[in-house]
TrEMBL record:
Protein name as it appears in the record: Olfactory receptor family 6 subfamily Q member 1
Organismal lineage: Eukaryota, Metazoa, Chordata, Craniata, Vertebrata
Annotated organism of origin: Seriola lalandi dorsalis
Topology relative to the membrane: Multi-pass membrane protein
Keywords: Cell membrane, G-protein coupled receptor, Membrane, Olfaction, Receptor, Sensory transduction, Transducer, Transmembrane, Transmembrane helix
Transmembrane segments: 30-54, 66-87, 107-126, 147-169, 205-230, 242-264, 270-290
Amino acid sequence: VRGSVNETWQPDGVDFFIIQGLANLGEKKMIVFVFLLLGYIIILGGNSMIIFVATTDPKLTSPMYFFLYNLSLVDMVYTTTTIPNMLSSFLSDVTTISVPGCFTQMFVFIQFAVTGRAILTVMAYDRYMAICNPLRYSAVMTRPVQLLLVGGAWVFGALCTLPASVLAWQRPYCGPNVIRHAWCDPSSLRRLVCGNTSVDNIVSITFALVALLTTGVLILTSYILIGVSISRMGVAQRLKAFTTCTAHLTVVSISYTAASFVYISYRVRMIVSVLYSALTPFLNPMIYSLKNKELKDSIRRTLSSVDPSEDIKTISV
């Protein structure tokens, strides 16, 4: 929608919101557009490949791959909630979104962000069971248990997101209707409420801390126990156990470090928040493909089955 970016006041309530996005980038908009588009294509391609090989390759039967393709699915939906809208905003003077659409975007974005962290927590528990209780691993990590853990991650994400979203939906918005962010960010949306938002702030911060600390503490606890168990192993076993954790530990470290950086820098540069929203989904496929030999071999087999030239090379070798 093209028009003016002026804030509009509507005493009877707003009919839509204007997403300011990265309008102040000027001539650099197209550069950011190209990088964001390429990043989004890589996110979709990389995570789609992981989902495909994890669900079709009979050699990838470990619960870890079940959790990994669920994480890839979450990453794809998480980025699709915001990046296409951001890309369209670079090609138009003004980007608008309906009121229901704005609240749907806000809920889905936060819910999938929390769900992603919850699945990372489940994956940490999976690594704990595999390393610290290898004899009981197969008996404990059955398919029903895997489904229960993933279902719990989705429920946890919804429960942490719902209270603040419901409060935001019930508030009156009489103007201005310009959201000074690249998407329907909760804190930016609260600035447009016609009334006191103290309760909203408390609820939002409380559940954000619950989501962050609960998952963070559980992941940290899992790795402390893993570290204690590894310290009692021989050198060869220690190296093998550490290798199985490196990909997940790398993803967790990047995710939480980036989240902390955004929290510190959010009010300084919005671009940092935009990069963070795409950083982990962008890096996940690369990290797991490089660090996990089974997954790397599976992707290579899949690509060689598509490209006949790869088969010729293999035969000639």
